[in-house]
Amino acid sequence: MTFTVKGYAAPAQGAQLVPFTFERRDLRNDDVAIEILYCGVCHSDLHHVNNDWGRSNYPVVPGHEIIGRVTAVGADVTKFKVGDTVGVGCLVDSCRHCESCKEDLEQYCEEGATLTYDDFDRHDGKLLFGGYSEQIVVSDRFVLRVPEGLDLKGAAPLLCAGITVWSPLRHWNVKAGSKVAVVGLGGLGHMALKLAKALGAEVTLVSRSKGKEEEAYRLGADHVLISKDEEAMNRAAKSFDLIINTVPYVHDINPYIATLKRDATLVMIGYLGELKPTVHSAPLVRFRQSIAGSLIGGLKETQELLDFCAEKGIVSDVEMVDIHTINDVYKRLEKGDVKYRFVIDMQSLKQGV
Predict the structure, then answer these.
(1) 161-171 and 299-312 are packed helices; what angle lies between their axes, rounded to 10 degrees?
(2) Does the N terminus or the C terminus of the chain have fewer Cβ atoms within 10 A?
């Protein structure tokens, strides 16, 4: 059995998002049915809709920053009950038995994790639809508990933007006294500043141009370093234990490598692709430095993040939008015209266009 829900979908590459009615599966024994209250708008939603990565499956119902309320649970579910406030992030399944899954790192599932949308269910092979919709059904293992007191609207982007920066901060053991640089001030960068500061680090925003100082300090930065200022970059040589690079396009990372301490790491989380110009290996060899990548986070890490944010009072800076304006929202997203994440009030789906 299935049940019918309403949402918004891109019916084909290059098409705008339009109202779309589709079927959600009936609950399996381990499933949780969730009424969606809020859904964040991630830049990867735009990539999937536009088929920028060449693997989109239409129709695409985007959305993987989901906050909602439990409406029903499967026969074997004990962790959640009707009325609980919960979240769903980028993943809804994995193989559950490889080494990565056993270590609660489902994002690195060796058989390939199942994405929340624009992917296929591991059990019935059907195309999965995301959070730009009234309801979603997800296995309880991939549902997160939202702590009391956490602002629900601002919590939605924690499930992608937040965990994408939290995972490397934790993996590279950022703590009080760590010196962390964040390259780029957008959806990822603003969360990296907040979370690194809350972990006790001394935090520097690295930006190509001036004018972001006030915002950076408000978000938790202790310093602002202008990467075009050659003298300032020279003074920053051998300064940082970790650099979180959120820049989403090809760019020269060699100047940033020069600011790493010995044994330090520059981690790429914003750009997927070939590095140009060529990375010079001499400083890496001479000072045992590393360039690394990091992908979202596992379910255990994500729950840890939500609990930490509730304790510290941290959420994303968001602008609320109605689902009926989503195509205009995407145009603004392409221009970077948001501080710092859009979140859809899904109650707007019940209103007329």
Answers:
(1) 100
(2) N
| CA dist 20 → 6, 17, 52 (Å) | 6, 9, 22
Residue 93: strand pairing partners? 114
What is the set of domains in the chain, with CATH numbers?
A: 2-159+316-350 (3.90.180.10), 162-293 (3.40.50.720)
Question: What residues have CB less than 8 Å from 5, skipping those under 6 apart?
Answer: 21, 22, 23, 24, 133, 134, 135
Q: Enumerate residues 6+ apart whose C-beta is below 8 A from 214.
A: none
The pLDDT of residue 351 is 83
The answer to whether the CB of 73 falls within 8 A of the CB of 30 is: no
155 beta partners:
none
Phi, psi angles (nearest 5°) of residue 142: -110, 20
Indicate yes or no: pTM above 0.70: yes
Contacts 24+ apart (CB under 8 A), 19-23: 19/353, 20/59, 20/61, 22/59, 22/61, 22/129, 22/133
> What length does the chain have?
353
Residue 117 near residue 89, CB atoms below 8 Å: no
Integer Cα distance of 131 and 114 in angstroms:
15
Predicted confidence (pLDDT) per residue in 49-95, tens digit: 999 999 999 999 999 999 999 999 999 999 999 999 999 999 999 99
Q: Cα 74 to chain center, whole Å?
A: 28
- Token code pair at residue 130: 């995301």
Query: Does residue 88 contact residue 116 with C-beta atoms inside 8 Å?
Result: yes
- Amino acid type, 293: G
Residue pointed to by tokens 């750009």: 271
pLDDT in tens, 305-315: 999 999 999 99
Among 5, 26, 138, smallest CA distance to 77 is for 138
Helix (H, G, I), strand (E, B) or coil at 168: helix
